[in-house]
Every structure is written in C-alpha cells, then in structure tokens.
Specification:
Layout: E1 6-13, H1 20-30, E2 35-42, H2 48-58, E3 67-69, H3 74-84, E4 91-97, E5 101-102, H4 107-118, E6 122-126, E7 129-133, E8 146-152, E9 162-164, E10 168-171, E11 174-176, E12 180-183, H5 184-190, H6 203-213, E13 217-221, E14 225-226, H7 242-256, H8 258-266, E15 273-275, H9 282-304, H10 310-323
Length: about 325
C-alpha cells in the first residue's frame, strides 16, 4: 500500500485536438506524488494522439498511459480507463471528459480531506451537479425523473438548479458527471459501470442506486473547473438517438432496481448542504456567483440558438450532461 492515496485521472477523449492540450495541462497541474493520467483515446481520427505524445515526452515526472478504444462512447471508455488504472491501492478515480478544464490545483488535498471528514460511507461524488429522484420515478414514463437539482457555480447555470458555492458539499442521490470522483475501494467492492447501458446515458443513476444499496451516500462537492456549453458536439452523428437511449436506459434501471428505487423514492432523499471546514471564503463565493450568472447568460444564448421549444431546450441540456 502507498503512504498517500493514489489519484487516477481518467480522461475520455474523442477528436478534441483543439482543446486536449489545455485539458491535459490542467490535469498535470493537479497531479501530486501518486498521480497517474489515463487518456482514453476513443476512436480519435484527428491529431489528439500526437498532442498527447508530445505531452508525455515533455512531462516525464507524471506517468501518462494511453488507452485505446474504438469509438465506443462514454460508458465503455470510462470502464476501459478504470480497468487500466490502479484500483488495488486506496485512492480515487477522477473521471472527466475532454471538454473539462480542471482549475482547482489543490484538488487532491481537498478530495482526500473530504473523504476523511465525511467518513467511509461517502461514495460517488460529482464536482458538477447532483439530483434526487422524483417520488414517482419508478412508475412514471419520464426518461429524466429528477428534482432537487444542485449545480456547482462553475457549471453551465441550469435554470432550475440551486447553486453550490465553494467550500460546500451537497448530498444528493444521483451525482451527474463530469468531473466526478469514484474511490478505488468502491471499484473493488461495487464494480464498474454497467455496460448493458452502453453507449451512454443513465449510468449515473444505475451506479448511484448500487452504491446506496451497498450503504454509501452520494454527494456533490464544489471544485473549480471550466467547461463551456459549446465545447461538446464531437459525436453529433452518434448522438442522434439520445432520446431513445435515455428512455431505454431509464426503463432498464426501473426493471433492474425496482425494489431499491421504490425504497429510495418512498423515503425522504437528502437535500442537505454542509460547509466543508476551513475553506469557505466570502470573496471567492461572490466571484463564484458572478461566474454562475455569466454561465447562465451563455446557456440562455445557447438555448436560444436551438430551433426548439423551451422545454425541449432544457431537456437537451440535461441529456447532454447525462450522455457525457
């Protein structure tokens, strides 16, 4: 066992040559003694690999191991990274997509202290957003049966979400990626994402239910990152059936986890927000709320550019987050 926890950074990448150098450099700035980066090159046909090779040759102090998948999309590429990474030593998997710039360079310290502070039953943690199931999630036909949205102030600024400020942790049933944190001990005990849900969408509620059944509590924790709403879209052709996948996968979850989902929905799901000791700064909170407002403005512009109804626009943003 290592003296300090391992940190596996698993980055799923598809044709992101315009942004991947920034993504990788931000991860490198977060890395410490026991960090290892696993870029998962998922069917890349552009210059992404060459950029990563240049970074590998330049920054030899942090191990970077390339993983290759054949355009399998999010769930299978995340699992490929998790399989390749060290899950035997205690530590954490930080999973992010190729449109996320980590900007919290004390991330490893904060994560380690967070899990020590909350205790061994803290499970799956999102650094972006979390939700609870609606009371009728088991019986409704809603492919996104969520409420009690809470979103990091560095997120997109979803209109019906409560903002999560720096220095705070919010308990929610389902964390939404990315970025997210999954402790290595959870991979050892609960396993990987369910590949029957591949290629994408609703792996989060499935995994969240499995963790709750195992006695864990999930949450959202505020760290600094940047991810513009316009940075996605490299899989536009593959994503044309997202609505079908969303409905199919939520129905599968209802079937697989009927008793557990009924139990979760019949009990009061936590909406508690707690202050993480010693890192709350009022000036940082003020700046974070300004960023939140600006991100909401950008989201409004993005939604207005889409030739669909307001309801459909909102659902499209949620599905975009869920498909990552």
């Amino acid at each position: 066992m290592t003296d300090s926890p391992v940190f596996n950074y698993i980055i799923t990448i598809h044709n992101k040559e315009d942004l991947i150098e920034q993504v990788m450099m931000c991860v490198l700035l977060c890395c410490r003694e026991n960090s290892h980066i696993y870029p998962v090159l998922d069917g890349c046909t552009d210059g992404t690999e060459e950029i990563i090779d240049k970074i590998i040759n330049t920054f030899a102090n942090v191990p970077i191991t390339k993983i290759f998948t054949t355009d399998v999309h999010e769930i299978l590429s995340i699992n490929a990274g998790l399989r390749a990474a060290n899950q035997q030593d205690d530590g954490y998997n930080i999973v992010l997509q190729d449109d996320v710039l980590l900007a919290d360079y004390s991330l490893e310290k904060k994560v380690s202290e967070l899990y020590q502070w909350v205790g061994p039953k803290l499970g799956y943690v999102s650094f972006r957003m979390g939700v609870n199931f609606k009371q009728d999630a088991l019986t409704s036909n809603n492919p996104v049966p969520y409420n009690n949205f809470i979103e990091n102030t560095y997120g997109h600024g979803i209109k019906n979400a409560e903002p999560l400020l720096p220095g705070y942790l919010a308990y929610r049933t389902v964390p939404i990626k990315s970025p997210v944190c999954i402790p290595t001990k959870i991979i050892r005990s609960v396993g990987l994402l369910d590949e029957r849900l591949a290629p994408c969408i609703h792996d989060e509620p499935d995994y969240a239910i499995r963790l709750i059944k195992a006695g864990y509590q999930n949450a959202v924790f505020h760290i600094r990152f940047h991810s513009d709403i316009n940075w996605g879209g490299t899989r536009t052709n593959q994503n044309q059936h997202l609505s079908h996948l969303s409905r199919r996968n939520m129905n599968r979850i209802r079937e697989w986890h009927a008793d557990d989902l009924a139990r979760i929905c019949s009990n009061e799901q936590s909406t508690e927000v707690v202050k993480f000791p010693h890192i709350v700064n009022e000036e940082e909170n003020r700046l974070a709320l300004e960023i939140w407002k600006e991100n909401r403005r950008k989201l409004d512009e993005y939604q207005l550019s889409q030739p669909v109804s307001i309801t459909t626009r909102f659902k499209s943003v949620i599905k975009k987050l869920l498909s990552k």
